[in-house]
C-alpha cells in the first residue's frame, strides 16, 4: 500500500474516532449521594505534616513539600480487594485527605480563587513501594515506580463541598487502622500547607483542570502492609475508605 493510501486511512480514522482498539474506560470515583467524578490527573504532596517529615528523617522547617503524580487509573474504590503489588517486599499505607477539583487554572494567587475550584473531599490512601522510594532517594532518581504503580490510589466516595466544606475539618482527625488497630491519628489542622495553599502552589507548576485529584499528605504512623491486611481510613464526617490486600495463593 502506498504512503498516500496510508495517509487517507489515518485521516479517516482520526476524523471518525475509529480507534485501532477500544479505548480504556475513563477512571472515576463515586460521589456521596450519587454521581461519578471523572478523574483527569492525580497530584500528591509529600512532607505536609511536621511529624511525618521528622519520621522520614527531614526537618520540617527546612524541608519544602515534594510534589509527585500517580496515573489516573491507579484509583481504587472503597471496599475493593487489591493484589499485593509486584516487585516489592515493602508496601506501605499513607492515609490522606483528598481534594477533588471541578474547575481549574494556572498561576492562582489567592486562597479564594483556589478554594472556588474545590468540588469536594474524600478519604484516600497513598500506597507506596517503600523499597523503591528508598532506592530512588539514594540515587537522586524519580519516584515513579515507588508511587505510580497499579492500584496505588484507593479513595472513598467524594463528599461534595456544600455538604463537607474543608473549613469544617479544622478540628477533624485523620485515623488509619490496619486490621482494626489504630496506626495513624492526627488533626488535619497539623498540615503545614492547607488545601488552598497546595492548590495555589500546584497551579504555579501545572494548569489545573476539572477532574484533578490532590492527595494532601500523610501524618506520622506510616507502616508496612502484608497480604490479607484490611485498611480503614476515616476523616471527620466524610465517607470512610476501606480496602484489603489480597491473600497470597
List keywords for this structure.
alpha+beta, 6 helices, Fumarylacetoacetate hydrolase, domain 2, 6-stranded mixed sheet, 249 residues
Characterization of this structure:
This protein has one domain (24-245): Fumarylacetoacetase-like, C-terminal domain (Fumarylacetoacetate hydrolase, domain 2, Alpha-Beta Complex), CATH 3.90.850. Helices cover 19% and strands 31% of the residues. The chain is built from 6 helices and 18 strands. The relative contact order is 0.24. Residues 5-9 have low confidence and may be disordered.
Topology overview:
Layout: H1 3-15, E1 28-30, E2 36-38, E3 42-46, H2 50-55, E4 66-70, E5 75-77, E6 81-82, E7 91-93, E8 95-101, H3 111-115, E9 118-125, E10 128-129, H4 130-139, H5 144-147, E11 153-155, E12 159-160, E13 173-178, E14 181-187, H6 195-203, E15 213-215, E16 223-225, E17 230-235, E18 241-245
Parallel strand pairs: 3-15, 5-11, 6-18
Antiparallel strand pairs: 1-2, 3-4, 7-10, 7-16, 8-9, 8-15, 9-12, 13-14, 13-17, 17-18
What's the overall geometry? globular
Widest beta sheet: strand line-up: 4-3-15-8-9-12
- Which spans have pLDDT < 50 for at least 5 consecutive residues? 5-9
Strand content: 25-35%
Mean pLDDT equals 91
* CATH level-4 homologous superfamily: Fumarylacetoacetase-like, C-terminal domain
Order of secondary-structure elements: HEEEHEEEEEHEEHHEEEEHEEEE
Question: What is the CATH architecture assignment?
Answer: Alpha-Beta Complex
**Main sheet record:** 6 strands, mixed
Amino acid at each position: 500500500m502506498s504512503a498516500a493510501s496510508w495517509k487517507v486511512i489515518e485521516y479517516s480514522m482520526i476524523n471518525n474516532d475509529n480507534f485501532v482498539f477500544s479505548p480504556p474506560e475513563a477512571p472515576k470515583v463515586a460521589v456521596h449521594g450519587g454521581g461519578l467524578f471523572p478523574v483527569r490527573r492525580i497530584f500528591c504532596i509529600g512532607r505536609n505534616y511536621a511529624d511525618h517529615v521528622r519520621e522520614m528523617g527531614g526537618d520540617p522547617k527546612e524541608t519544602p513539600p515534594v510534589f509527585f503524580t500517580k496515573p489516573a487509573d491507579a484509583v481504587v474504590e472503597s471496599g475493593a480487594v487489591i493484589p499485593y503489588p509486584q516487585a516489592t517486599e515493602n508496601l506501605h499505607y499513607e492515609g490522606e485527605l483528598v481534594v477533588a477539583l471541578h474547575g481549574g487554572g494556572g498561576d492562582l494567587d489567592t486562597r479564594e480563587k483556589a478554594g472556588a475550584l474545590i468540588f469536594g473531599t474524600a478519604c484516600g490512601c497513598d500506597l507506596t513501594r517503600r523499597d523503591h522510594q528508598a532506592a530512588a532517594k539514594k540515587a537522586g532518581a524519580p519516584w515513579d515506580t515507588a508511587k505510580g504503580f497499579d492500584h496505588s490510589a484507593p479513595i472513598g466516595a467524594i463528599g461534595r463541598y456544600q455538604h463537607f466544606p474543608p473549613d469544617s475539618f479544622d478540628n477533624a482527625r485523620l485515623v488509619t487502622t490496619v486490621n482494626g488497630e489504630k496506626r495513624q491519628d492526627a488533626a488535619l489542622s497539623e498540615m503545614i500547607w492547607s488545601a488552598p495553599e497546595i492548590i495555589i502552589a500546584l497551579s504555579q507548576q501545572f494548569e489545573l483542570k476539572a477532574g484533578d485529584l490532590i492527595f494532601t499528605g500523610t501524618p506520622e504512623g506510616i507502616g508496612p502492609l502484608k497480604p490479607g491486611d484490611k485498611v480503614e481510613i476515616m476523616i471527620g464526617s466524610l465517607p470512610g475508605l476501606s480496602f484489603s490486600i489480597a491473600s497470597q495463593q
